[in-house]
Automatic annotation (TrEMBL), chain A:
The lineage of its organism: Bacteria, Pseudomonadati, Balneolota, Balneolia, Balneolales. Belongs to the CPA3 antiporters (TC 2.A.63) subunit B family. Keywords: Cell membrane, Membrane, Transmembrane, Transmembrane helix. Its main location: membrane. It comes from the Bacteria. Residues 13-133 form the Na+/H+ antiporter MnhB subunit-related protein domain. GO terms for cellular component: plasma membrane. The chain crosses the membrane at residues 12-30, 36-53, 74-97, 117-136. This is Multicomponent Na+:H+ antiporter subunit B. It is found in: Cell membrane. It comes from Fodinibius roseus. It holds the Pfam family MnhB.
From TrEMBL, chain B:
This is Multisubunit sodium/proton antiporter, MrpG subunit. It holds the Pfam family PhaG_MnhG_YufB. It comes from the Bacteria. Keywords: Membrane, Transmembrane, Transmembrane helix. One of its GO terms (molecular function) is sodium:proton antiporter activity. The chain crosses the membrane at residues 7-26, 46-62, 69-92. The keyword Transmembrane applies. It comes from Fodinibius roseus. InterPro entries: PhaG_MnhG_YufB.
Length: 144, 111
């Protein structure tokens, strides 16, 4: 068995592509009202950009970018954003996830629906990204 | 008149792209060995996709969609050869021997 060395082409290419994939994931999350996309798709794109670095550059460098004990708290924070928004609308007198009833001052109902959907999509995207990275980390933990 | 020229060039580019994709697929099925299969797919698939997307850019003209297609073209031109390189390199580092003339085809080349 030869000694394995990291390929500079793969490393440089993934380092070049990863920020653009992450930017496109954020675009898919934040533009999810008007075009196809949303929290799930954008979250998988963010996870893809993180996993590209994780696969190509190994454990030590990728843990600097996004360390593995961050995944579960981020997933929990995303779920809390989702249910917090829904329950806030419920407590303010509407139904669950009734964005028009959110108690944000200075906004009327259409603007409230706009921002409410955006907050929900952010929570979903955060959860999907963290859970996918956590699945990858759990899979490779046995090999290291 | 302009749109006729656009449509003619679109059809030419897309047909050329489909030809290269077809050649790559036939190469994947027919060639005997992992390295030659990678060789067949990587270059011709990249070229076929680039030609098809170039034809779609010509079809769109100056538009926001053609800018997005140009970005897709750029990313395919970057990522497809890098992926093929990573595949072939992983096979080489796993000591997969290429198929030579004397190698037994049925037994494979696991030795």
């Amino acid at each position: 068995m030869k000694k394995r060395v990291a390929s500079p082409i793969v490393l440089l290419g993934s380092r070049l592509l990863s920020p653009y994939i992450m930017l496109f994931g954020l675009y898919v999350i934040f533009h999810g009202h008007y075009s196809p996309g949303g929290g799930f798709q954008g979250g998988t794109l963010l996870a893809a950009s993180l996993l590209l670095i994780r696969i190509s550059s190994g454990r030590r460098i990728s843990r600097i970018q996004f360390s593995d004990y961050l995944t579960t708290p981020l997933a929990v924070i995303g779920v809390l954003i989702y249910f917090g928004t829904g329950l806030t609308a419920l407590l303010a007198g509407g139904y669950f996830l009734d964005y028009g009833q959110l108690p944000i001052p200075g906004l009327d109902a259409p603007d409230l629906r706009y921002w409410g959907i955006l907050i929900i999509e952010l929570g979903i995207g955060l959860t999907v990204m963290a859970v996918l990275v956590s699945i990858f980390d759990d899979m490779i933990r046995g090999e290291d | 008149m302009m749109t006729d020229i656009q449509i003619i060039f679109t059809v030419l580019f897309v047909i050329a792209g489909i030809f290269f994709l077809l050649v790559g697929s036939i190469g994947t099925i027919r060639l005997p060995d992992f390295y030659s299969r990678t060789h067949a797919t990587s270059k011709s698939d990249t070229l076929g996709l680039l030609l098809i997307i170039a034809g779609l850019i010509i079809y769109e003209g100056f538009h926001v969609n053609s800018l997005k297609l140009l970005l897709i073209l750029l990313f395919i031109a970057l990522s497809n050869p890098i992926g093929s390189h990573a595949l072939a390199r992983a096979a080489y580092e796993a000591n997969l021997k290429p198929l030579f003339k004397g190698t037994d085809k049925e037994k494979g080349n696991q030795a």
